[in-house]
Amino acid sequence: MARSSNDSWDLASSVGTTATMVAAGRAMASAASGALIDDPFAAPLVRAVGVEFFTMMIDGELDLSVFGDASPERAEAMVNGMAVRTRFFDDCALASTAAGARQVVILASGLDSRAYRLPWPDGTRVFELDQPEVISFKTSTLAGLGAQPTATRRAIPIDLRDDWPAALRDNGFDPSARTAWLAEGLLIYLPPEAQDQLFDRITALSAPGSTIATEWAPGIVDLDAEKARAMSAPLRDHGLDIDMPSLVYAGQRTPVMDYLRSIGWQVSGTPRDELLARFALPTPGDAAPDGPLGEIVYVSAELSTGTPPATAR
Ligand SMILES: C[S@@+](CC[C@H](N)C(=O)[O-])C[C@H]1O[C@@H](n2cnc3c(N)ncnc32)[C@H](O)[C@@H]1O
């Protein structure tokens, strides 16, 4: 179903399905030999959501040809891609807290368990924002598993198209203190102007020394919807009700690196293959060509000067 301005979802429908999908990827990456990441909550969370396709995926019972081809190289590329993505955001957040930040804001937190699994310095507060059903499911499922946050966790159920800065402040966020912001796997689900507004709002809430970790998917600009739809057809044949082109906002949008630079951030971008090489993992090359979103660029940014030029819209 096409997106609308006030649509909402749980973890088994619409955009929420993508949160379960990436958590399944983290579960597989955590179980890989010589794993780069260890997310012990990913698999139980995915099982609790109860979408059979993802449960089969993490149990190794899914024929991976549904993702294009069933070659070991293709499967390895998928798992390694999720491993380096997770490590990138883990490392950015921990580097920011090592440099003094004691506020971490995870926008579109989905089934991200960083508030429960990373070794945060004493006094760290982790704010998680996502749709109400997503927040309440993760909170109650992890409580049921006996998981304890490793920081003070503030879960804020809200749509990121609404006034989330006010909700953040109401929950004790301090804009005068430096913050580590994470926006992982979010931007393609926001309309182009909402992406820019998100970063304006972040900037208006950021003290000098604050950091952002996010990513840029170059293929979103000229997304080939028919190709993308054809790629997800086998998933639907296996019972997974997902139609990626209808969940994302394709078309012209400002590359996030350019936008952040224009509003005063010092930005660096690392293409996925460079990240794989950094962790001594093979680059997929022809074994697993990029999907419709192209080669993802992982973006980190720091606000190092005084008053930012942007005003919150
Ligand atoms: C691909 S998932 C990524 C989740 C998490 N960051 C991760 O990497 O595991 C996309 C997430 O964005 C959230 N999201 C997208 N648009 C949103 C909106 N307008 N308001 C709140 N959450 C949103 C979804 O609920 C979902 O959890």
Automatic annotation (TrEMBL):
EC number: 2.1.1.-
GO annotation (BP), single: methylation
Keywords: Methyltransferase, S-adenosyl-L-methionine, Transferase
Cross-referenced Pfam families: LCM (PF04072)
GO molecular function, one term: methyltransferase activity
PANTHER family for the chain: S-ADENOSYL-L-METHIONINE-DEPENDENT METHYLTRANSFERASE YKTD-RELATED (PTHR43619), S-ADENOSYL-L-METHIONINE-DEPENDENT METHYLTRANSFERASES SUPERFAMILY PROTEIN (PTHR43619:SF2)
Similarity remark: Belongs to the UPF0677 family.
Name the UniProt record assigns to this protein: S-adenosyl-L-methionine-dependent methyltransferase
